[in-house]
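quick one before i forget lol
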Amino acid sequence: MSKEDKTPKQEFLFGKRNYLFMFIGVAVIALGFILMAGGGSDDPNVFNEEIYSFRRIRLAPTLVIIGLAIEIYAILLNPKK
């Protein structure tokens, strides 16, 4: 028996599908944060109502939560199947 036979084979912790879902989850989270950005005013004396738009109050946080759920699913997905 040679020394190469005794060394355990190096394996990744997650499978290919796990990493694919993790990438999708990170992309959805990033999209949520991008949609949440902006809406401020250049002049501090002027209030901009755009800060309370549907995109920033409802859509963007929902996308971040969906992205986190996708990440949890990716971690819990069984790579052996």
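fyi The two ends are 32 Å apart (CA to CA).
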